[in-house]
Each structure stands twice: as C-alpha cells, then as structure tokens.
Amino acid sequence: MSNINPSRLFNASCMALTVTSMTFAIRAGMLVPLGKEFNLTDTQLGWIAGIAFFGFPVATTLGGFVVDQFGMKKLMWVAFLSHLIGLLLTIFAGDFWTLLISTFLVGFANGMVEAVCNPLVASMYTKNKTVMLNKFHVWFPGGLVIGALLAAGMNSLGLGWQLQVALILIPTLIYGWMFWGQHFPRTERVESGVSTADMFKSVLSPLFLFMAVCMFFTANTELSTGQWIDKLLGKAGANALLILALVNGIMAFGRYFGGPLIHRLNPTGILLGSAIVSFAGVYLLRTTEGPALYAAAVVFAVGICYFWPTMLGFVNEYIPKSGALGLSLMGGVGMLGNWAFQTFFIGPRLDAEKAALATSGLPSDEIELLAGQSVLSSINLLPVFLVLAFGALWFYMRGRNKEGGVSH
Asked: What domains, with CATH codes, occur in the chain?
C-alpha cells in the first residue's frame, strides 16, 4: 500500500459524499417550484423525489456485487460520470419524464459513491472503522447544510432551481480531479482472503437480515423527513430550509466529534439512544409551530445523527465477512425503503389529506400545515419500532465481541 495515499482518497471520498448530499438538499428546496413550473401533483413529485432513492439501491446493490472483481477505482469513475450526466440533464429538463430520468441518474451516482467509498474507508482504516465511517459521513449532513443554505439564499435572491443544480457541478469536478491518478487498495474482504461463499453466508445471517429491516426504519426516519421538509413544515411558521441546515449542521458536528461517545456506549447503545431521541424529535416537529420549531429540530438532529454511519459500522464490525457487499446492501435497503415510502406513501398521503380538507373551508396554508402534520404523525411510528428493535438488540449483543462470539 506504499503507493496509496489514504489522506487524499479519504478527502476525495468526503468531497464525493458532499456532492451526494447537496443533491438531496437542493432537491428538497426544488419540489415546490417544480410542482408549480411543471404543474405536478404531490404524487408526481413523490415519484421524482423517490426515483433518486430508487437509483441509489440499484447502484449500491450492483456495486456491492462487482466491486471486489472490478475494483473500487473503476466504479468511482462510473459514479463521477453518472453525476455529471445526471446533473446536466436535470438543468435542461423540460417535463416530468426528463426530470424522472435525470433524477434517477443522480441517485444512481449517489449510490455508487456509497458503494465505493464505504468499503474504501473501511479498507484503509481497519482498526478504527466505526469512528472513521462517522467522520466520512460528516459530509452527508455537511453537504446538506451547504446545499440548504445555498438554496435558501438563492431563493431569496430569486435565482432559479436550474442555477442551484448547476452549482453542484463545481464540487463534482473537484472530486473527479482529486481521484485522478490515485491508486486504490483492494477491498478488505479480498485482502483478508474471505471467500465469496462466506460473504454470501454472512449477508443471509439472521443478525444481518435483522439489521437490514432496521435500516428501512432508520433511513426513513432521517431522510424522508428531510427530503420533504419544505412540504411538511413550509407552512408551520419557520423557514424549512433553515431547519434542514440546522439539523444537518448539528449532525455534522456530532459525527465529527462522536469518537469518544461511540467508544463509551458501543454501537448498540448509540442506536438505542438515537431511536429514543428521534421519537421525541419527530413528535416535537409535528406538534410545534413558529420559532419553537428550531428547538424541535435540535432534538430531531440529535436523534438521527448517528443512525446511518453506526448501522454501517455495526455491520462491518460485528459481521465483518459480509465485506463490501454487506455495506452496499445496507445502504441499498435504506434507500430502497426511502423510495418506496416517499413514492407510495408520503406523496399520495399528502394529496389525499389535502383533498379531504379541501371542503372544510380552511385557508390553503392551514390545509398544507394540517396535511404535513398528519404525515409526520405516521413517520413518528418508525422510531417506535426502532426503540423496541434496538432495545432487543442491546440485550442480545451484551457480552458478545466483534466476531459474534462471547467475550471473556
């Protein structure tokens, strides 16, 4: 590994993840103007928002299966080209279908970044995986902060969504340059000689399947709420994009400085605590209005802060033979769950709630607020499941070491 530059590869990975998260933030602010410009229903907006989450698991699943054979470097360039093409097509989209295709490509690129960079970080920092995965995933909320603040600022200046999307091209070209000419390590599974049969056995183990089910709930608690923040809280008396920036700023801070907490509580303790606090956070978001929403957002941010990287870290530490495929499948399950939840629940539910309230004689802003709060009440059930699931996991994992045996 003498010709490998871990620092540059890690920083380039962080820049690529920043691009990924900026697409989420900019898209969250685009849903309302897209609906007006292209005369789209909330159901159609649900398809557009959701297709990015569908492209993600397609890429992570495909990448997880072939990254050991093709190598991480080739797949990283697939991610870069998909980002470049998808962003350009989005800027010049003219109708629902071109938006759908371009958003799928961006989602595919985002998934390929995760499929490559998660095992890349785990392979370079084998003795400090969960901490470094958390530091890498600082740049998901970090990019969301950047994207949300840019979107809010450009909206206030009357600058359209096309220019906002065009800005994402800048960090895209930067991460392409940072990866240019770099040597990549082999994946940890290949390096350690774990067989393909053992890898598949690991991803079919009861513990892995249990964590995959939990990933559906953790990902939707975090990402579905954030992606629809403007629709769900836009009429609640606070700036929804500033709430998104606040939430993700706290998440970035927590992930970067979370090493001591992770070592003190271990992954199962972190997940259980996160589920409890995220339940309180979603409850406060749906029952609070006005400036108090910013305080509710702080509680929500603390709750969801460690979900995604700690889920990945748990799998990589306690089910290590699952390798890059395990990391990719976990991310894929999370995003596939987001796609299904947003496409078939959030969008249609908002349309249905507003239709039901249309005859009530309430002002349109009040109808929007009540519909958003109704959807949030359903989202609040997700962390209820997680409290029960992670409570059971905490009891199950007590006394077990990272290889799944019993510690002495």
From this structure: 6-397 (1.20.1250.20)
